[in-house]
Amino acid sequence: MATARFFSLPDSIKQLSDSGALSSVPTHYACRDPDAPSDVDPTLEGQIPTIDLSVLTEGDPARRSQMVRQLGRACEEWGFFVVVNHGVPETVREAMLAAAQGFFDLEEEEKAEHSGKHVMDPIRYGTSFNSKVDDVGYWRDYFKIVVHPAFHSPAKPLGFREALGQYAACTRVVGMELLRGMWESLELDDGYMNNALDLDACFQVCVVNLYPPCPQPELAMGLPPHSDHSLLTLLHQNGVDGLQVKHGSKWVHVKPPPNSFLVNTGDQMEIVTNGRYKSVLHRAVINGRSTRMSIATVVAPSLDTVVEPVAQLVSPERPAMYRGVRYREYLEHQQRNKLWEKSALDHLRVQ
């Protein structure tokens, strides 16, 4: 298999796919064994937990208490759930998808103006994951934009800034309401957790992923198995499925209901809860017919917060499982290395 140092990535996977010149996957992208037995369990699809956010925010005390417990179980047993009745207008969600498509439809020269040189650049466009260290290429273009505590946006296409501003504000509200419910499910004080993680200055990023049709989708991957660096991630997609989540030893192909968000817990959640709520492994698979686009909203502590297991969840029976780390340092470490499972989190485990 070719390695990254011998392979020059195209300007974008979209450009490669749109060219119509491919009848097979370039060797650099062939990272799967097409003859391997399937590790996806279709019987698990119907078991994915569903959280009704309106009950958390507006329900009577008894129903709300039940939903908090349901949220806790979803975090503890799955690290993943579907959120319905979240309050984000469908017009806002659709406008964001349209704006994102408009960006990817720009000329390559215009998009290349945002080709980031550093993982902390506030606006960064690229392909694969980290072409400087990846041994293989992933069938994915991406656009990452920091939207909080400072808001950033490209100037093109027209209307992108307005769509992103509305979407970022709405998803941040959803994320904070979910975090409030998670703290309550662990009997942690919301005010204390807000201060400990400096959530008023939370680091929020919108990551737009584009997975164009692939001539041999059984050989390539959109993204490999990985966990997110965040507290939690909210995912919205364009109706084309491709997200798979690991549950136990099996993978689950996720088919979300209309007007819902997919939410998973990240590495910072696993650290701060001392392993009670684990970050979940997930991956992106591709297809040969349709373009999949997803918008992942990452909600995390402030960059300068030292994230460590909260004292209330540490005991002689359950000692601290992770060393504390400044979130900025964790983020930079994960983003500049190969993306594979929980390799970044493993560095912090207390042996």
Percent strand equals: 15-25%
Task: Determine the N-to-C terminus distance.
Answer: 35 Å
Largest sheet: 8 strands, mixed
The overall strand count is 14
* CATH fold field value: Jelly Rolls
Element-by-element helix/strand order? HEHHEHHEEHHEEEEEEHEEEEHH
> Any low-confidence stretches, pLDDT <50, length ≥5?
1-7
Number of domains: 1
Given the helix and strand composition, which structural class is it?
alpha+beta
CATH hierarchy class name: Mainly Beta
Give the % helix.
25-40%
Biggest sheet strand order reads 1-2-10-7-12-5-4-3
Average pLDDT, to the nearest integer?
92
Protein name: Fe2OG dioxygenase domain-containing protein
Main location: cytoplasm
Pfam families: 2OG-FeII_Oxy, DIOX_N
Function: Involved in the regulation of shoot development and salicylic acid (SA) homeostasis.
Could you explain how this protein is built, in words?
29% of the residues lie in helices and 20% in strands. It has ten helices and 14 strands. It has helices spanning 13-18, 53-58, 61-77, 90-104, 108-112, 160-185, 190-197, 267-272, 327-335, 343-346; strands at 50-52, 80-84, 123-127, 141-148, 203-211, 223-226, 232-237, 243-247, 250-253, 261-265, 282-284, 292-300, 306-307, 325-326. The strands form three sheets. Strands 1-2-10-7-12-5-4-3 form an eight-stranded mixed β-sheet. The two termini are 35 Å apart. It is globular. A hairpin with a 2-residue loop joins β8 (243-247) and β9 (250-253). It has one domain: B-lactam Antibiotic, Isopenicillin N Synthase, Chain (Jelly Rolls), CATH 2.60.120.330. By secondary structure, the protein is α+β, with helices and mostly antiparallel strands. The model is unreliable at 1-7 (pLDDT under 50). It holds the Pfam family 2OG-FeII_Oxy. Its cofactor is L-ascorbate. It is found in: Cytoplasm; Nucleus. Belongs to the iron/ascorbate-dependent oxidoreductase family.
